[in-house]
């Protein structure tokens, strides 16, 4: 009897239990249900408002499972489909904040956030499933699907950034360990063995993180596909055209890093997508805007890889990257099936090696270079 009483008390209080808080500022436009440690609160925020999530309890905390249980009960007692779908995404945002908080610790491993990452996937899947189910019932949920799609985009960018930052820290640690092994290779076999074991652990963590990044991207893509089917051709095209316009603006701000020809090509594609949208050719608008977006992402990815390569070379003890080389490396992406004006990572490494050779060879090499 006593056990039943305790269970009943937990069940009744669970909807009010949450250890993550949402802070929002902005004008009222969309009602978003957020929870505090004492009660359920409705916070009105606009679509453009930045919502900061305090992670509260995180994976590894003793009461973390109770927090997740409280969310399940809260969802169970939320009967309005729209509110329930939005609540799923609020919980997804909390998972991102928790993952970010845990991975701040330099000793944290990707496995430490496995529960939160899996729950993130479950929450966005729950939201898209509700919307799809409502559409199948004949309910017009295209607008809701569009709202949720934008929110998932925001969360996906954040979780990808968090996982990518963790991966970068692993790569840096890996480079440092390799340098240490090289430094003691001939003088301290025992130390080499110790460092080699540590290197193996770091490499495993890098591979695990790569897999988690891939799984997360695939899941987000699947759920976005479901929502875009519900949105219909017009809203889906509108979303992708707006995204292409935004990325095109970002590209225009990257002066000195991207060729003017690339900027003009992508700008032209963005204009073509807008024209197709205005003519009601939504499939064409979708196709063109997606192509433009992909090209911008390629450019950004290659440049990010180049920055990481330079950063990694500078992090190795006893090795410096000449400022002239760092400043001289510019990376441009593949456009129209060919690489334009790019030095690239490998070429950048060759440049650094070349400069290193010049420093060793003395004035003769320098004079030859000047000529």
UniProtKB/TrEMBL annotation:
**Signal sequence region:** 1-20
Q: Where is the composition biased (Basic and acidic residues)?
A: 347-371
Q: Which InterPro entries match?
A: DUF5667 (IPR043725)
Q: Where, if anywhere, are coiled coils annotated?
A: 163-212, 259-305
Instruction: Identify the residues that the record assigns to the DUF5667 domain, covering every copy.
Output: 56-151
For this UniProt record, give its keywords in alphabetical order, as a comma-separated list.
Answer: Coiled coil, Signal
Residue span of region Disordered: 308-371
Note the Pfam families from the entry: DUF5667
Quote the protein name from its UniProt record.
DUF5667 domain-containing protein
Q: Could you tell me which species this protein originates from?
A: Candidatus Nomurabacteria bacterium CG1_02_43_90
């Amino acid at each position: 009897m006593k056990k039943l009483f305790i269970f009943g008390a937990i069940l009744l209080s669970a909807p009010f239990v949450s250890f993550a808080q949402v802070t929002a500022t902005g004008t009222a436009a969309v009602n978003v249900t957020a929870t505090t440690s004492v009660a359920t609160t409705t916070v009105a925020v606009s679509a453009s408002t930045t919502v900061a999530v305090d992670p509260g309890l995180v994976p590894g905390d003793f009461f973390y499972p109770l927090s997740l249980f409280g969310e399940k009960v809260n969802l169970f007692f939320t009967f309005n489909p729209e509110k329930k779908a939005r609540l799923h995404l609020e919980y997804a945002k909390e998972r991102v904040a928790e993952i970010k908080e845990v991975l701040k610790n330099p000793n944290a491993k990707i496995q430490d956030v496995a529960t939160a990452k899996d729950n993130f996937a479950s929450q966005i899947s729950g939201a898209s499933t509700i919307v799809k189910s409502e559409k199948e019932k004949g309910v017009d949920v295209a607008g809701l699907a569009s709202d949720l799609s934008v929110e998932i985009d925001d969360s996906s960018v954040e979780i990808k950034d968090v996982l990518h930052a963790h991966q970068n820290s692993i790569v840096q640690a890996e480079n440092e360990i390799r340098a240490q092994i090289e430094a003691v290779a001939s003088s301290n076999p025992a130390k080499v063995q110790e460092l080699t074991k540590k290197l193996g652990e770091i490499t495993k963590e890098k591979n695990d993180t790569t897999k988690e990044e891939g799984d997360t991207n695939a899941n987000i893509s699947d759920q976005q596909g479901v929502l875009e089917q519900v949105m219909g051709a017009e809203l889906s095209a509108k979303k992708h055209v707006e995204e292409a316009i935004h990325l095109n603006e970002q590209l225009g701000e990257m002066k000195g890093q991207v060729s003017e020809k690339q900027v003009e090509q992508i700008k032209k594609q963005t204009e073509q997508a807008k024209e197709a949208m205005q003519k009601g050719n939504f499939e064409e608008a979708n196709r063109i805007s997606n192509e433009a977006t992909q090209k911008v992402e390629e450019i950004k990815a290659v440049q990010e890889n180049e920055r990481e390569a330079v950063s990694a070379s500078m992090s190795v003890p006893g090795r410096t990257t000449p400022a002239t080389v760092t400043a001289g490396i510019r990376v441009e992406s593949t456009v129209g099936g060919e690489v334009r004006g790019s030095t690239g990572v490998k070429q950048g490494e060759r440049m650094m090696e070349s400069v290193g050779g010049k420093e060793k060879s003395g004035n003769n090499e320098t004079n030859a270079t000047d000529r």
